[in-house]
Structures are given as C-alpha cells and as structure tokens.
Amino acid sequence: MAAVEPTSLTGVERLNYERSTVEPFTSSFGWRTLFNVMWPLAGWIATVTAVLSDRLPMLVGVIVAAAMLQAFYMPVHESVHRTISAGRNRWVWIDRAVGSFGAWMLHTSFVDHRHTHLLHHTHTNDVGDPDVLNAKGTPRDIVVRILLGAVLFPIVPMLAVIPGGMRLLPPALRSRLAEAAAFRSDAARRGAMLVAWSHIALFAIAVALGYGVELLLLFYVASWLGRLWLSLVFGWLPHHPHGEVGRYRDTRVFTFLGSTFLIRGHDYHLLHHLFPRVPHYKLRALWREIGPHLASQGARIEGRAARQLGIEPQ
Predict the structure, then answer these.
(1) Is the pTM here over 0.90, yes or no?
(2) CB 13 within 8 A of CB 300
C-alpha cells in the first residue's frame, strides 16, 4: 500500500468518494456467509459424534466444539447488517433465518442481539452503547463477566417466574442486570427469555435421555467458551480503551501477524463501523482501496496497518 497523500477530502467530495469506493463491496448476495453457517454446524455435529463414539476425548471435544460454535457469530453478525441479502427486501428472511439459528447455537437471541448491536453502532463508546457496559475494562473483567453470564443464563429465567425470586441475587448483581436490561426493547427481552427457556427445556430432555453431561459440556460450556473468545476479539480488542467518539475514532484498524484469520477480518473493525454493509470477508480488500483516505481523515490506525501506510500509529 502506498504512502498516504497529504491532502484529505471534505464535505460532499468525501461522501462521494467513500460511497463510490464502497459500493462494489456491498452489492453481492452473501453465499460465503451461507457456507459459513454450514461448516461450523457440520464440524460441531462431527465433534459431538466423535466424543459420543469414544473416538475423541471429552476435553479435546469441548475445545473443538468451542471453536466450531464461536464461528457461528460471523453469520449472526452479517445477518444483523443484512449483508447476506445485500439489503434486498425479498431476501431479508434469509438474514433473519441464518441469524436466528446462529444466535441460538450461541445461546442468545437474534432479536436481542440485533437490537443491542445496532445501538452499539449508533452510540459507540458513549453512554448509550451497550458494549461499554459489557466490553470496557481489562481482559480479566471480560472473563469474569462471561463466567457470570454463563451461570446466570439458566438461573435468571427461573428466578424471574418465582415471586420475589430476583431478590435472591446480590444487590450489585441485580443493579448490573438492570443496567443491561435498560438497553433492551420489549421484543429483545422476550426474545432473550424465549431462547433461555428453549435451552433449559433442551437440557431437561437431554438429562431425561441420559445425555445431560454431554450436552452440558459440548454445547453449553463450549458455547460460552466461544463467547469468551468473541467478547475479547470483537468486543474488547477493536474498541479498547472505549474512550473516543467520532466517525473515524470510535474504533480502529489494528492488524498484526495472523490477525485477519484470528478475528475474521475485524482487525479492520473501523471499516465495519464506517460501512456496515460490507461483509467481513471483504474488509481487507476494501482496506487496500481506502486505507490512505482513512489515514488522511485522522482515523485510528495501529499495528502493521500503520507501518504499511508509512505512518505513525494514530
């Protein structure tokens, strides 16, 4: 990538340049995302089958299952931004179907996640951003929050139907749950509760059939291990330290050796916030086109990406 030009576009010229540059990356149907929801499902099923037939140790199975389950997030995320349908109304049902299935595999509600994630885009790093509550802090903070989330996921729905049940939780925890709930719409709350109860019912059936431990480890524990990874690389890393607002500063481009593979293109997360209709697998190609322009706008660019442009991290 060439060194950055000293001049920068402003006003309508900037808008037209960005629009014309990005449009070729947003117009195609997301066949790759459909593939990206099929291979983790096949991999997870194969892993469970191998463990149940004693061809794979349980510990290895949990780790592999976690790797398969975390991969469902990319199709969910693409569905939130309707990149599968490329914004075409007649195909939006595919976005909803893929997003709902992938989110369920990750023990969350697509309706809930779509609502809070779009709030994150609208209010990145300010008081209206749900991710400030969930992802700001240190990696240790993220680990603690994920552990609490995993424990509370099946407990809170049951406490909620018991009169006074929520009072059994410590006051500080009730306060934090109330903060999180404030970001949710009524539809999002209903969606989250429906998903939680569906998993509780599935676990009860598995216990009755004699597969409770297997389901617990290969689906529940594995899914939340995957969510820990996702929280670190999608929630915390691209936005750390969650301190700036503004179109080119509220997240960053931060690349390092192997980062595109590990973070599925979101090492160029700033591009996603700027142009959310661009699928994750096209972000690096878009960066090659638009990187110098973003640098001229004062965007946050760090790591190898800054060195490629011949600039200091900013």
Answers:
(1) yes
(2) no
